[in-house]
Amino acid sequence: MKVSLHGPRGRYVKEGLIRGLLFACGLAAVVITLVTIGTFLLGSLPFFQKVSPWEFLSSLRWAPLTVPQSYGVFALIADTLVITAIALIVALPLGILSAVFLSEYAPERARRTVKPALELLAGIPTVVYGFFALRFVTPLLQGIIPEIGFWNGLSAGLVMGFMILPLVASLSEDVLYAVPRSLREAAYALGATKFEVVTRVVIPAAFSGIGAAFILAMSRAIGETMIVALAAGRTPAWPPDPTQPMMALTTTIVNIATGDHEATAFIWSALFAIGLLLFVMTLTLNVASYFIVRRFRERYE
């Protein structure tokens, strides 16, 4: 029996098709995530059969191709976190201040112009950021800090901060703009100044969204590859010194993947182990972001 899509029954059929399509899209995301986890687990299994998780996480020496071999990533984790911290020190204050300006001070015409221009930074390829850090920022820093190395974590962290700046600014501006106008008007009615309204009413009300933006930016910085591979160097440093070459976890993956190693070599299982570690780190940050939003979320009727 043929069913017309224009009658009452046809609407139900179309709704069912749309519902099924949306369910399939959601299911595909879950399946892809599970397949990714399974790939990391199976790929890293040969590695953890030879190297204990404790040695992998606690040893300071990463030397997979020398004798004796060592597969410790503690120094790599420390280098990654130091570079990420530098990026966040740049992105967080600039991003929040930019968001406050766009949300509370900028005229509507300026907001419609400045915000898209700021978001254009997110469209620049990260390899371009890496060359910019290496060929412009590093020479600039060498004029200020003569002992800084040609490859260094400071340059990579600073440029990475500008790379994640649009993420912090855009998300923070959205949550600040969503704070009900009635809260601002109530504060003004009590005699508060513009600055007091922003700092004591608007920002606290949007804290959950700002915190989530901060953690998502941190997750993005930890997983960045090209900037740290080009500008930070490929030498693990312990203790971490941002003025000298550093080696992030993502750079280690690049070294393995672009080296002269067969795909069946044991070193490739180390690649999966590091990838699994990065996956766990970013997953932990995303879960923390979810709980921060739930814990500090404000509901307005």
* Separation of the first and last Cα atoms: 48 Å
* CATH architecture identity of the largest domain: Orthogonal Bundle
Poorly predicted runs of 5 or more residues:
none
CATH class of the largest domain: Mainly Alpha
Q: Strand-and-helix sequence, N→C?
A: HHEEHHHHHHHHHH
- What number of structural domains do the residues give? 2
Average pLDDT value?
83
Summarize the structure.
This is Phosphate transport system permease protein. Helix content is 73%, strand content 1%. With 301 residues, it is mostly helical.
What would you say this structure looks like, in words?
The protein is mainly alpha-helical and 301 residues long. The chain folds into 2 domains: 8-63; 73-296, MetI-like (MetI-like fold, Orthogonal Bundle), CATH 1.10.3720. Helices cover 73% and strands 1% of the residues. The chain has helices at 8-50, 53-58, 74-105, 108-119, 126-144, 153-177, 181-189, 194-205, 207-222, 226-232, 249-257, 266-296, and strands at residues 62-63, 70-71. It has a two-stranded antiparallel ribbon with strand order 1-2. The longest helix has 43 residues, at 8-50. The model has no long low-confidence stretch (mean pLDDT 83).
